Amino acid sequence: MGGIRKTTLAQLIYNDSVMELHFDFKVWVCVTNDFDIFNVTKTIAKKVITSQRFDNDDLKRDFTSLTFDNEDLDFLQVKLKEALKGRKLLLVLDDIWIENYSL
User: Is 1 inside any structural domain?
Assistant: First the structure.
């Protein structure tokens, strides 16, 4: 469903200052045609950890010391879950294309 201004609407909501009051973190990820769950998760994690609102120095140190190149997805998801525990995240996954709608 291209061209019906979904991204424009999402941007208006994402950039609304009221969202700052409702969410601890806001992350916008553009997903490419060759979708890779590890890269998407890595992008989300990096944006959360580098946010000025992130205040867990130990976890921040853990993340910045990782190369992410040879870490597994499960480990990354566990660390992201730990980082988000008790916090609210507004996550926008933009540019997702699903050819087979019966999935």
Answer: no
The residue whose two tokens read 């580098």 is: 50
Residue 93: strand pairing partners: 29
What is the DSSP secondary-structure string of 23-89?
Answer: -SEEEEEEPPSS--HHHHHHHHHHHHHTSTT---HHHHHHHHH--SSS--HHHHHHHHHHHHTT--E
pTM of the model: 0.79
> Per-residue pLDDT tens for 9-23?
999 999 999 999 999
In a domain, 55, yes or no: yes
Does 101 reside within a domain? Answer: no
Q: What angle do CA 55, 61, 65 make, to 5 degrees?
A: 150
Q: What is the number of domains present in the chain?
A: 1
| 87 domain-assigned | yes
Q: How far is CA 89 from CA 11, 14, 51, 61, 83, in A?
A: 15, 11, 12, 21, 11
